[in-house]
Amino acid sequence: MASTHLSRAAFERLQAEHYDLTTRGRIEVAQKIEAARLLGDLSENGDYHAAKDEQGHMEGRIRQLEHLLEHAEIIETGDEGVVATGTIVTIMYEGDTPEMAETYLVGHMEEKVGELDIMSPQSPIGAALLGAAEGHWVEYQAPNGMLRVQVLKVAFA
Q1: Which pLDDT score, from 0 to 100, does residue 119 have?
Q2: Three-state DSSP class for 114?
Q3: Is the dihedral of CA 36, 42, 47, 49 positive or negative?
Q4: Is 82 domain-assigned?
Q5: How many whole angstroms separate alpha carbon 49 and alpha carbon 59?
Q6: What is the maximum alpha-carbon separation in the chain?
Q7: How do beta strands 87-93 and 102-106 pair?
Q8: Containing domain of residue 120, as a range?
Q9: Which of 5, 39, 71, 78 could disulfide-link 84, Cβ–Cβ 3.0 to 4.6 Å?
């Protein structure tokens, strides 16, 4: 099974979320279900159905987190100025002006913090950028042909 590359910060954040959901979260949902049961007929009890839906969503997220954490490979911070999982990269496509530069966080969608869009390291552009240093040009095969981008800036997330 393929591993999920995560920064240490994302891994620790997911561990904390998992702990919270399996402790406080489960207790709160159980209390909501019990309180709704005391209201009577469960077939027409909106509070009961809402609490059960909440429980289902929470248990799904717990299973998702368990899978991610079990298959996670922690990627340690690499060299400064070099694109790696967990770095923020600013790129410019060939033919664009610096004002058209785009900034992304390279990593799994669980790395997301703030407003930055995520670029998967497994995507064609993400794979091409891994290991590239500031100032370097990289090429990758896109659906509409070969594209070139320049790495303008790399920062740690």
Answers
A1: 92
A2: coil
A3: positive
A4: no
A5: 15
A6: 67
A7: antiparallel
A8: 87-156
A9: 78
Separation CA 74–CA 11 (nearest Å): 7
- Contact present, 36 and 47 (Cβ < 8 Å): yes
**Which two tokens mark 71?**
């298959």
The answer to whether residue 81 is domain-embedded is no
Q: Which amino acid, 84?
A: A
Which residues partner with 151 through β-bridges? 91
The CATH number that applies at residue 116 is 3.10.50.30
In the structure encoding, which two tokens stand for residue 48, read together? 């009961």
Provide the pLDDT for residue 1: 55
> Parallel, antiparallel, or unpaired: how do β-strands 72-75 and 137-142 relate?
unpaired
- pLDDT by 10-residue block (mean), the chain, 157 residues: 78 95 96 88 83 96 95 80 88 93 90 84 92 94 93 88
Cα-only R_g, the chain: 21
What are φ and ψ of residue 50, in 5° steps? -65, -40
